[in-house]
Amino acid sequence: MIISLVFERGMGLDFYAGGIYPRRPEHLWGIFTIIFIHSGWSHLINNLISFEILSGFLFFFYREIAIKVFIISYIVSGLLLWMIGRDAWHVGASGLIYALAFFVFFSGFIREYVPLIAVSLIVAFVYGSMVWHVFPWQANDPISWEGHLSGAFIGLTLAIWYRHSPPQRPVDLWDDESNDDESSMDEFSSEIINENEIDSE
Question: Which residues of the chain have a pLDDT value below 70?
């Protein structure tokens, strides 16, 4: 991302064509390059920080499915943007970032696993305001809310789809042992009753 903007500004070029222009087959390949194109340094820095943090959460806490989630989020969020976006150039990594944020947030609560819920709460605290940017704020909103919406939808969908994948909340062995103890006590009680019945006879 950084190298792309350095080349663009340093050589006086314009890489906007590397973004996505919805519903035009000749620009469909933009779903693979959109995350590398940014409108300026502030746009890049904001996206880069969020990308590093959220992808770090993904690959650290969900390492067994991280690559699949990342690739699907990358491609499908771009494809969905190409289908629903307004007729304009869309650039930036926001779609992928929203997909990662929504996946990490919802996955923790769906799994009901305390460490992952804690991560979800961190994401909610830091990025909670992101939810408002999946909708248009004005008639000609310059921000690609369609890209945000596409990413959010894919992230939520993947959180549900991979809800049974690791990591999962550990099985409480104490409950299992207590259940075994209870069943043993029941068997012991039944043996005593049977012995008493024999004695009474």
Answer: 139, 172-201
